[in-house]
Structure formats: C-alpha cells, structure tokens
Design brief:
With about 575 residues, this protein is α/β, with parallel strands linked by helices. It has three domains: about 260 residues, ANL, N-terminal domain (Rossmann fold, 3-Layer(aba) Sandwich); about 150 residues, Rossmann fold (3-Layer(aba) Sandwich), CATH 3.40.50.12780; about 110 residues, 2-Layer Sandwich (GMP Synthetase, Chain A, domain 3), CATH 3.30.300. Helices cover about 30% and strands about 25% of the residues. The strands form seven sheets. The chain has a nine-stranded mixed beta sheet with strand order 4-3-13-12-14-15-16-17-18, sandwiched between helices. α15 links the parallel β27 and β28. α1 crosses α9. The longest helix is centred in the N-terminal third of the chain and has 17 residues.
Amino acid sequence: MYYWREGNYIKTENLDFPVKELGGVGNVMYERMKKNGQKTAQIDAATGQKDTFESLLQRSIRTAITLKKRGIQKGDIVTTCSDNNINACVPLIASFFIGAIPCSLDPTLSDFEMEELITQVNPKIIFTVKLSLAKIEKFVNDRNLDSKIVVFGSSSDHATFEDFLQPQESEEEFKPIFIENPKDTLIIYFSSGTSGFPKGVCLNHYYFYNHSPLAPPAKNNDVDKERQLYELSVKKNGDCSFLNYGSMYWTSAGMGLFLSIFAGVSRLLCNNFNPEEFWYLIDKYKVSGGFLTPFQVTELVKSGKPDDVSCSSLIRLTTGGAALSKRYFFALQELLPDTDIVPTYAQTEAGMLANFQIYNKTQREIYKKNPESVGLPVRGVWYKVVDPDSGNIVGPNEPGELRIKSICVMNGYYKRDYSNRFDEEGWFRTGDVVYYDENCQFYVVDRLKEMLKYRGWHIPPAILELQLSHHPAVRQSVVIGQKHEEDGDHPMAIVVLHEEYKGKITPEEIEQFIEERVQDKQRLRGGVRFVDSFPMTPSGKVKRKTLKRMFCVDKNCYLRQKSIDPLK
C-alpha cells in the first residue's frame, strides 16, 4: 500500500527519483516533443486546424531564441494573455526553454484583476490577443511599467507574434537551459490566497514532475494503472484528444499541456463552453479525457445527451474547482454509463491533494457508491487534520483544517510574505476543512478561507467590499458566500448603514449599485442583508466566521454544525 496511518498522521511513499538528471521541465518537454514528431499536439475546435509536436517544438525554439535576443534572461517574467489557440502555449514553453518564468492571464479577467496582477509581477514582456490589448496598454502606461507588448495578430504599434516565428540560424543547434535545482521557481499561477486579493503562486519543477508519469512505479500495482490512462486512450482511439476549456491562466491547462507533451496525445482547444456542442466535439474528435467545472457538469445534465451521439471514446471526465453535488454526479453517470466521472481535490499552492485511483477496481466501485468523497491520499504528500481553534491533531471522521507536507508545495507568493501559510512545524495550511474516514477516503467540508467560487471562478470578497465602500450609504460591509448547488457560492453582502441612510435605502438599490460596477460573475446573487453592527474581536477585526454562522443557510455547513452561539 502506498499510504498508511501513523497515529493520526497519514503518510505516503516519497517520490525519490533522479529529477536533477532531467534538467528541468523545459528539457523534458523538448525531448518528448522531438520524440512525438508528427503526432498531433493540438486541434483548434473552432477551425479544425491541427498542429504537430514537430511544428510546436520549432515555434517554441524560435520564440525562445527571439526572447533571448530581446534581452529576456533566466528568472525574468514572461506574461501571456490569450484565449485558447494554437500559439497560446508557445511563449510558455519557450520560457521554460530559457529559464524565464511564465505567468499567464485570462482575457476575461476584470480590469481590476488584470491591472493588479500585471502590476504585481511587472513582466519584461507581455504577449496578448487584441481583445485585451487596449487595457494592457493602459495598465502598462498608468503604472509606468517597462513591459514590452507583443500582439497575437497584426499591429502597427507593437511587435507581433509572427516576428517571433521567423527562422533562426541557430535553431538546429538549440538546447534548453539545464536546471540544476528542481526547487527553482518554474511558473507563477495566480491564486487569491487568504487575504482576498490575488497573489502570484511560485511553483517549482517538482509540481509538474510529481503529478506526471515521470514519477516511479508505486508499490501498489493497482495504483500504477492510473498512469496508463493516456496509453490506454492511444491504443483505443489512435490519435486521442484531451478536452479542456481553461486557458493557460489555469493550473489544469498547464498540467494538461505537460501531460499531453509527455504522453504524445493531442489537446482539443476550446474556448466558450456550450453544453450542446460538447457532445458533438467528443464524438467528432474521439475525445478520451476531459476536465469540466461542476457548473459545466450541471449544464451538461440540463441539456441532456443528444440521441445521435455515442461518446463511446470518453474514458474519463474529471471535475474540479468546487464540489460536485451527488445529484448531478449520478445524473451525468446515467448519461455516460461507460465513463469514469472523477472529482479532484487540489490547490494552486500545493497541487493534487486527493484523487480516486479509478483503475483500482475496489476504489472504482467505492466511488460510484460514494461520490461525496474526493478520494485517497496522493503519493508524495503527508497529511494531518487539526482542530482550527486549538491546533490539536484530530483523528478519523473529525473535521478540521487539512495541513500537508510535500516537495510539491509552492516556493511562496511572489514578492509577498507567505509565512502565515505554514505552521510552526513547517506544515502547509490549506485553509480547507476536511475529514477522512477509516479507509483514508477524504471529504471536503468547508473552506476556512474567505475566497468564494462562482461557477469555478474565484470571487475575492475584498474586491466587492471595496466597491461597496464607494456607496455613500455603506458604513461597513463584509461579503460572504451562500452555498448554491449548481453555482458553488453566491456572494452576499452584510452591510452596516450610516445612520442617516437607515430606512431610506433598500438592499436592491445596493445590489444594483454593485451590478453596475462589477462583472456578471461578481454580482451579489446572495443578496444584501442589513445589520446594526458587526461582531468584533478585541483587536477590532470583524468576526467573519460568526457572520457566516448567522447567515449560513446550507444545512450541511460545517460552521453551523459546530452549534456555537452565533452572537458570540
């Protein structure tokens, strides 16, 4: 067995293998793309355009050489803001090749989020689609950044990506930089952490190594079968595809790219999720695996599977980013009886923390009967669950905060303090309330963090609270989440009014005020509640947990189950 209990600790096999000899993720991707050659690497679902690994490698090499010619060095930040297209991943791969640190944005981010993130990392160069060009130009100018802008497409004011794809004299002799220390920062992804504002999460090479087929065989041979997913897919479908709607802004897309290159299978690039179109894409491209958010799963269930599609190629459909309700799990399983529908529990800062080994027959049957579990421990991670108040370690079936130790845990937040994310013994604080049963199956109960998730999107309460502070009637505000079966969290504002506005303004007026200033996903769908005052700590901080207990309507809410007087 690759995992075991020592008292109330859960430990797993260490993933000790000669990673230093690999020379970094860039070298691994380079060698695998050379090996994969004429196999299809990417397919653009909108146009049907196909891209081979050989072509992808050539464009990545040319981009890497051009980046170096333009002064980009090891450790410099390279940012890409793009939807899913054939070239979106090229600057990321090129950055790996030269030791630069990629950091991607999504074009649909709000102006506030995009400006905050660009300012944080101050990239040396930004590759952007035209959709985001104007706002990026504004942010770079307003903040007096030295970032150079490159446009995917034509431009009279900036360099274009085509400039980076021109033949280079040295491209045949090109070799990626050799990374001596796998703990070096490889990539930055954004996560809102515990403060509510976005933070750049610095991830190392181990993060990708340990979640890939590079890891050595486990002692439990049944678990090894999990690593055969792509091999099985290739044998079954030939040139198989993995479908992912997320842009390179998401860790799931980055990991999908790495696994695609390593295994030599194609990625099907899609942008806007359409439940009716999804079924036909699966059949048309013989998709073997896919990743969907729970919201997208609910949309699939509502649309139903058309009679003229079979989806027989779909081996595995993974969900993540929020909890998938049991009702929708069983409904989707009925639509796809031969497909394994598997939830994942992961964090940007730490990678995969629990998952079902679906090729283990025993676990497969357990999960189909018990979809509320997020699965078993992941190799290379040690676990403990502690009481969030006392810090004491608790045992099976007792909820508490999950803390872990792993070589995959982030290096830290980019240019920000992260010491409070680790306890005094060096365990990473996940901020999530979980419990595990006697069989080490994990269950996620709640989040200690204030971050909300609406349809898979992070909603920082601090951003909404900032907007609320601009309303003349609002004296104080706190934004919490109301649980929703399909959407995840609906933001709710708890508001203390200035005396002169009491009785003269309605909750609906404040909702409208916010709706006019934020994106649709950030609307106060949970409504606005007025209170006379907030419960406060002796140091003058609002007791957010108390407010959650006061307004929590989810009967399964962990904080309500604690049966604590909400007014204390």
